[in-house]
Automatic annotation (TrEMBL):
This is DUF817 domain-containing protein. Coiled coil: none annotated. The chain crosses the membrane at residues 12-30, 42-60, 67-83, 103-122, 134-152, 158-175, 187-209, 229-246. The keyword Transmembrane helix applies. It comes from the Bacteria. Keywords: Membrane, Transmembrane, Transmembrane helix. InterPro entries: DUF817. It comes from Oceanobacillus neutriphilus.
């Protein structure tokens, strides 16, 4: 019974962390069947995303510090989308006023929602990193993975080499998290894989509701090729590494400020 209770509690915390992604996917489904006159669907989705973001901050579900991370992911995702669409990797078939180089601005929120999930799950589950590699290894690896999404169109696709590097560098790393009063551990590589699988499932839902479409889905919808899991896995790794580095930097800064304030108090006394 305790195990079942812990599983339910874990699911509840995960559900709270997924509010932003859930709203986006629910909006994709609803706007597929409900139209507003003179307001294109992609523009409506952008309004929903903006309202949701304001709600997340106003309600305290997200903090202002987390908003900085989420905004960074919005920019990273939108940049990738513009490049990929113009390389013919996929298209956004519907018209919109808020399309920029063929990419509707709401698409950046899909990447931002992944960052929202990571930030909230990190805070709610009190995530700690065990045997985490140096920033001098994790930082360049994250940059190389992100750049490969662009460079493989002109050069070699080295995703499998990068995946092998991930296994080597993170083989001994664990993510330590708290459910209730008990702490658990999971190999970090396993957590990357699980998040990647769930995002691939979400991608199938999104393409079914024509959030975007791949060339082979132009005539009739079909499942996204399982090979795309590798792309999402690498994107999840980039996302996790960026959030981890920002969280660690934030913790160091707060620790320094706390140490300075305590030193000032002792000197006054």
């Amino acid at each position: 019974m305790r195990a079942i209770k812990q599983l339910i509690r874990f699911g509840y915390e995960q559900a709270l962390s997924c509010i932003f992604p859930v709203i986006i996917f629910a909006s994709l489904a609803i706007t597929k069947f409900i139209e507003i006159p003179f307001l294109p669907r992609y523009d409506l989705l952008l309004i929903i995303c903006l309202v949701t973001q304001v709600f997340m901050i106003a309600s305290g579900l997200e903090t202002k510090k987390e908003l900085v991370v989420i905004t960074l992911f919005h920019i990273i995702g939108l940049t990738l989308e513009i490049f990929k669409v113009n390389m013919g990797s996929w298209v956004y078939p519907e018209e919109a006023y808020t399309k920029f180089f063929g990419v509707p601005l709401y698409s950046g929120f899909m990447y931002a929602s992944v960052a929202s999930y990571l930030c909230q799950a990190w805070r709610r589950l009190d995530v700690r990193l065990v045997k985490w590699p140096s920033i001098f290894l994790a930082g360049p690896l994250a940059a190389a993975i992100y750049l490969n999404f662009f460079t493989h169109h002109y050069w070699l696709d080295i995703r499998w080499w990068l995946s092998a590097l991930v296994l080597i560098i993170f083989l001994r790393a664990w993510v330590d998290y708290k459910v209730g009063n008990k702490r658990y551990r999971m190999p970090i590589v396993l957590s990357f894989f699980l998040i990647g699988i769930f995002i691939w499932i979400a991608e199938n839902i999104a393409t079914f509701f024509q959030a975007w479409e791949y060339p082979n889905q132009a005539e009739v919808w079909s499942m996204v090729h399982l090979g795309k899991v590798s792309s999402w896995l690498l994107l999840v790794i980039v996302s996790f590494l960026i959030v981890a580095m920002l969280k660690q930097s934030q913790a160091k800064i707060e620790g320094m400020l706390e140490g300075n304030s305590q030193g000032a108090i002792r000197s006054k006394s």
